[in-house]
Amino acid sequence: MTRGLPDLLAGWITGQRWFAGKGHAVDALAIDSLTELHGGDPALLHLIVSVRQADRRTRYQLPIGLRAELPGRLRHALIGACTWRGRQRYAYDAVHDHVLTGRLLAGMADELTVGALRFHRVPGAEIDPTLRGSVLTAEQSNTSLVFGEAYICKLFRQLTPGVSPELEIVMGLAAAGSAHIARPYGWIEGDVGGEPTTLAIMQEYLAGAAEGWTMALASVRDLYASPPGLSAADAGGDFAPEAFRLGGATAEVHDRLAEVFPTGSMSPREIKALIDRLHRKLEQAVGAVPRLALYAGVAAGAFDRLAGITHGMPVQRVHGDYHLGQVLRTPADWVVLDFEGEPGQPLAERRALDSPMRDVAGMLRSFDYAARHLLVGHPHADALEGRAREWSERNRAAFLEGYAAAGGPLTGDDMVMLRALEMSKAVYEVVYEARNRPDWLPIPLAAFTPGRDAP
Ligand SMILES: Nc1ncnc2c1ncn2[C@@H]1O[C@H](COP(=O)(O)OP(=O)(O)O)[C@@H](O)[C@H]1O
Ligand SMILES: O=P(O)(O)O[C@H]1O[C@H](CO)[C@@H](O[C@H]2O[C@H](CO)[C@@H](O)[C@H](O)[C@H]2O)[C@H](O)[C@H]1O
């Protein structure tokens, strides 16, 4: 059997970008399920493992390759040597081996069931099983494989039992003919904790598209390099027209989501519960990042102002983790990716109806990130601070204008909700950056400026 494999994996998993428990020791790693997707040499094992860290248990999906000899092209993916069925094998991260990832594509094309894994093809979609897969090199919470510039297949790393909100939403929006999503082709499902669970989703790969984050950064760079005194509007590469258009696309996506999925209203009692929840999350975040205590009053004030909303607020399905890295600009329009909600949150919370301001808040935060991230470690950061603020405010305003122009609601109550949710997102980001990119911590901390109201 897999003697030694759990130990090998426990040593390796903590170093992976997608590992969510950074900063805490791994007490134990157990293999919950093992499916042999391809026998022989190379072999492909599909593992679901549980990682125990103090009182928390997190499940991860690991496609593992096994070979008697490891070719040079796979050295970087090596996990270690182990014994498999009495033979010495090199275990490695199989996502880097196109010979093995082809099995996933073929599984979806042929709608196979292999052991506990069920491969699905979207009705009417044609999948070419011969395309070669390669790993997308992006800063990601998951791992995506691009097959021949035609499809992109996202393998969820951290697993939460249940159908992924992303699959649900992409299928719903595709059926409704939304122009703002990448067409779905297939998905992989397995049982986790006794529940059918989405393990991977494959969509159309938008080969020529530019990421919103990259476009925004190019614009910020242009502004920083322009002569002093030139405004963001006059410097080359102004992003505001794109921010306006993105606001419009966001309102259209919200509109479609409200059409396809249930909607509701958040009562004043539920708003009170939301205020309590936001305060609780703030306290937890201060526990995790004590420096946040200095800024917590600004966030708490914004949360408390929600009590002034006396008529309730409309709620619906939303994106949940909306930022510039989740939108792609194709020649035609903006396309929205990754409807997963905040990674690591319980599934019920990620699927719950919420204020569409949650997404508007996420994107406003992202404009601030884009403006400020080049200042991290910059020798002239203080001198550029004013320009960062100008860029951020200009693009935040343009986004809101585009949102409102396309029918997105932005009443007084919406703005109060927006401010509270923006503060809540910044609190989340403080914890996220402390764990993943400590150098970036000043970016979300700068959000807690007293009296700063959206935009
Ligand atoms: N359909 C697509 N076409 C082209 N690139 C894509 C597509 N979907 C995702 N990407 C690229 O992959 C990156 C990560 O995708 P995402 O769904 O956000 O993964 P994660 O949930 O792991 O963050 C995106 O930022 C984008 O650059
Ligand atoms: O991996 P996901 O895309 O689902 O989201 C997580 O990682 C994001 C970072 O890649 C993080 O976003 C934060 O950084 C972005 C720039 O890299 C910035 O545009 C976002 O505004 C900021 O929140 C996201 O919060 C996290 O959930």
TrEMBL record:
Q: What is its EC number?
A: 2.7.1.175
Q: Does the keyword Heme apply?
A: no
| SUPFAM superfamilies for the chain | Protein kinase-like (PK-like) (SSF56112)
Q: State the similarity comment.
A: Belongs to the aminoglycoside phosphotransferase family.
Its recorded name reads: Maltokinase
How does this polypeptide assemble, per the annotation? Monomer.
Q: Which domain of life is it from?
A: Bacteria
The protein's UniProt keywords, in alphabetical order, are: ATP-binding, Carbohydrate metabolism, Glycogen biosynthesis, Glycogen metabolism, Kinase, Nucleotide-binding, Transferase
Domain Maltokinase N-terminal cap: start-end pairs: 12-97
Keyword Protein biosynthesis set for record: no
Q: Which GO terms describe its biological process?
A: glycogen biosynthetic process
- What organism is listed for this UniProt entry? Thermobispora bispora (strain ATCC 19993 / DSM 43833 / CBS 139.67 / JCM 10125 / KCTC 9307 / NBRC 14880 / R51)
List the molecular function annotations (GO) for this entry.
ATP binding; kinase activity
Q: Which pathway does the UniProt entry assign to this protein?
A: Glycan biosynthesis; glycogen biosynthesis
